[in-house]
Design brief:
This protein is an alpha/beta fold. The chain is 32% helix and 26% strand. The strands form 5 sheets. Strands 1, 2, 3, 4, 5, 6 and 17 form a 7-stranded mixed β-sheet that branches. Strands 8-15-9-10-11 form a 5-stranded parallel β-sheet. A 5-stranded antiparallel β-sheet has the order 18-19-22-21-20, sandwiched between helices. The chain is globular, with a radius of gyration of 23 Å.
Length: 466
């Protein structure tokens, strides 16, 4: 069988790329090494984690806030097997959805491990070996968790996000190595359900890639949930046994000071690496960079003409929506269109509660670049909608250019921040000023009024409600 384009990997980047290629008239094949489509995001990442986040938030509210709302529940308890079953059902429905989209767009799906024989011939290894010919290839194989050998990863007591999504019993205690997005999201799930959670972070703050004000706000909120943070600490020992795991960490400021825990689980969440294992890249002359990524040019084409790479295997943030944009970009580039991606305006989100969402430059980046700016902040606590829902934690921070008033960065910690950030992205795509945003009518009462107020604070230091 010969194809115009073959996509290796069926995550958000891969399946979206395949659909767009098919829409543009290309005969398209999609190769997935696992038996289900959707990649990490759908099966062991974005979707299942959000399902558990929502379930745990419902339980937490029933336990902590329903009484204030006038709702009384007796004998409240967590049914963890049912929670996991619901999560699996959500994933299954999404799997079926992608299968439907492949059939609808007449995309041929192959299950097995894809690797290059040469740039125009792909071997698919499963129970039987199949080979297909293709004019072009898109590599979209995603990423895997980074787990140093010294951490003794056994998938039983020392776990990654994959195993953390399938625990059948609420742990009594857990140490999370890494204060990034994955660790904090899953840590918040179990903290809400009653687990004693310790977060060990090597750096001096959590979510270090986001604005420092977001880090402070989120840490304060998660502390209120009961999570304990140990910043500027390095883990030196992870020793699992049958029923527990010992974790030891040393202070970076004073190595004589150590912390030690004997907990039910140790969740390793220190980042992810590009998954390029056994792709046969050496057969076509592709050499990985120092971080294991596939180098690409401005068209996301590798050093081999006709072979492209997108998503987690190339430079940039490891985000599902970034991979999707790149999938569409490559498909349209192949047929001679002129698509564009503004990487500075791809938002980042942390799905804790409160949520964290950010787009554009952080205050630290603007200072480093020497860009003159003016900040504007507005606290959720001063928002009528937040008071009504009892979601008082958080703030909106807007950074505007000091001279032109153009919005340069928006950083939100609060209820529905993940949805609110889309307004900021849209305005910044059209290079709007803080004044422009401040003069737009925002429905009352809504959470988005906090964005308007922060823009008022940035443009002329004239917020109305604080």
């Amino acid at each position: 069988m010969t194809y115009d384009v073959t996509v290796i990997g069926s995550g958000p980047g891969g399946y979206v790329a395949a659909i767009r290629c098919a829409q543009l008239g290309m005969k398209t094949a999609l190769i997935e090494r696992y038996t289900v489509l959707g990649g990490t995001c759908l099966n062991v990442g974005c979707i299942p984690s959000k399902a558990l986040l929502d379930s745990s938030e419902h339980f937490h509210n029933a336990d902590k806030t329903f009484k204030t709302h006038g709702i009384t529940i007796k004998d409240l308890k967590v049914d963890m097997p049912q929670m996991i079953k619901r999560k699996k059902d959500v994933v299954l429905e999404n799997n079926k959805g992608i299968e439907f989209l492949m059939k609808k767009n007449k995309i041929d799906v192959y299950h097995g491990h894809g690797s290059f024989i040469n740039k125009n011939r792909i071997r698919i290894t499963s129970q039987e070996i199949t080979e297909i010919d293709t004019e072009r290839v898109i590599i979209a194989t995603g990423s895997k968790p980074i787990v140093p050998a010294a951490f003794n990863y056994d998938k039983q007591r020392v776990i990654t996000s994959t195993e953390a999504l399938n625990l059948e019993k609420v742990p009594g205690s857990m140490v999370i190595i890494g204060g990034g997005v994955i660790g904090l999201e899953l840590g918040s799930v179990y903290a809400r359900l009653g687990t004693e959670v310790h977060v060990v972070e090597y750096l001096d703050r959590i979510i270090a890639g986001m604005d420092a004000d977001c880090s402070r706000e989120l840490q304060k909120s998660l502390k209120g949930l009961g999570m304990q943070f140990h910043l500027r600490h390095a883990v030196t020992e992870v020793t699992p046994s049958k029923t527990k795991v010992k974790v030891v960490a040393k202070s970076r400021d004073d190595e004589s000071k150590t912390l030690s825990w004997n907990v039910d689980y140790c969740l390793v969440a220190i980042g992810r690496r590009p998954y390029t294992d056994n792709l046969g890249l050496e057969n076509i002359g592709i050499t990985l960079d120092e971080k294991g990524r596939i180098p690409v040019d401005q068209h996301l084409q590798t050093s081999v003409p006709g072979v492209y790479a997108i998503g987690d295997v190339i430079q940039g943030a490891m985000l599902a929506h970034k991979a999707e944009e790149e999938g569409v970009f490559v498909a349209e580039t192949m047929v001679g269109q002129k698509p564009h991606i503004n990487y500075n305006l791809i938002p980042g989100v942390v799905y804790t509660w409160p949520e964290v969402a950010s787009v554009g430059y952080t205050e630290e980046q603007l200072k480093e670049m020497g860009t003159p700016y003016k900040p504007g902040k507005f606290p959720f606590r001063a928002l009528g909608r937040a008071r009504a829902s009892m979601d008082l934690d958080g703030m909106v921070k807007v950074l505007a250019h000091k001279e032109t008033d153009e919005i340069l960065g928006v950083h939100i910690v609060g209820a529905r921040a993940a949805d609110m950030i889309a307004e900021a992205v849209a305005l910044m795509e059209f290079r709007a000023s803080a004044e422009d945003a401040a003069r737009m009518s925002h429905a009352h009462p809504t959470y988005t009024e906090a964005f308007k107020e922060a823009c008022l604070a940035a443009t002329a230091n004239r917020p109305i409600h604080v």
